[in-house]
Design brief:
The chain has a single domain (4-191), classed as 2-enoyl-CoA Hydratase, Chain A, domain 1 (Alpha-Beta Complex). A five-stranded mixed β-sheet has the order 1-2-3-5-7, sandwiched between helices. It has a four-stranded mixed β-sheet with strand order 4-6-8-9. It has helices spanning 33-47, 80-98, 115-122, 148-167, 175-181, 193-202, 209-226, 234-241, 244-255; strands spanning 8-14, 17-23, 54-59, 64-67, 104-108, 111-113, 125-128, 133-135, 173-174. Helices cover 44% and strands 16% of the residues. The relative contact order is 0.14. The protein has 264 residues and is of the alpha/beta class. Strand 2, helix 1 (33-47) and strand 3 (54-59) form a beta-alpha-beta unit. The chain is built from nine helices and nine strands.
Length: 264
């Protein structure tokens, strides 16, 4: 097994707002399996807490929201089925966040890529600092592919053309582009974003909870109806995760060995 510092997902509740922090700043808050488990568990707990009116997700350290899933963990993958199992696991965690019956806000500072982008896309609202770098640059890093559900979230918010830019061209979206695209609802300086997000989150205490819940739930029903079944990309997930390219890309990251894409 590859040795990976596990990190943690913190939670603090202040005046009805739950602040959920991805706390692994030495690795730009890259997610470990245990952090995904903690996120899933926290979503269930916050769902059941009547004192919580809104949930804010943020990265610790100020340099990143979440810089994807820690690549070192993929070193133990054997074949394409491991990729399918991984994508299913992530789908389950992200679905729990997306379906949380509280308003959710992603406070984005710095890098928000890969798994971090999936988490942010599942939130109801996103606000960022000018340092935002948003994307899923797997065409340059690992050579894997997204589940059809996570790809659908990208398309829902960015449209087809920008989704191709993000995934096929591996382009990162900066703060001005994110604002124009409607990906974020506002851009705030680093010394002001927490106060601004706190104000927006606490405002939900004065809004009709049934209206907020109903709106979110019905929107999610519409989105679920539009989306392809979860196994709609399994053939490509098996192909990409089971490829020599994927294994070589992971080896390059872990052991710093050179390689060239082969398409096999």
């Amino acid at each position: 097994m590859t040795d990976v510092s596990q990190g943690q997902v913190d939670c603090r509740i202040d005046q009805g707002v739950a602040w959920v922090g991805f706390n692994r700043p030495e690795s730009r808050n890259a997610m470990t399996w245990s952090m995904y488990d903690a996120l899933e568990r926290l979503c269930r707990e916050l769902e059941a807490d009547p004192q919580v009116v809104a949930v804010v997700f943020h990265g610790c350290g100020g340099k990143a929201f979440v810089a994807g899933t820690d690549i070192k963990q993929f070193a133990d993958f054997e074949g394409g089925e491991a990729g399918v199992n991984y994508e299913r696991r992530i789908d389950s965690v992200i679905a729990g966040l997306e379906n949380l019956r509280k308003p959710t806000i992603a406070m984005l500072e710095g890098f928000c890529v890969g798994g971090g982008a999936a988490i942010a896309l599942a939130c109801d609202f996103r606000y960022c600092t000018p340092t935002l770098k948003f994307g899923v640059p797997i065409a340059e890093t690992l050579g894997n592919c997204l589940s059809v559900t996570n790809l659908s979230r990208l398309m829902d918010l960015l449209g087809v053309a920008r989704t191709k830019q993000v995934l096929m061209a591996a382009e990162l979206i900066d703060a001005p582009q994110a604002l124009v695209a409607g990906l974020v609802g506002g851009v705030f300086e680093a010394d002001a974003i927490r106060q601004e997000v706190e104000r927006k989150a606490q405002a939900f205490a004065g809004r009709a909870p049934l209206t907020v819940q109903a709106t979110k739930d019905v929107i999610n029903r519409v989105l679920a109806h539009r989306r392809t079944p979860a196994d709609g990309s399994d053939d490509w997930i098996r192909t990409c995760y089971g490829s020599r390219d994927f294994k070589a890309a992971v080896d390059k990251f872990v052991s710093k060995t050179p390689f060239e894409w082969t398409g096999e």
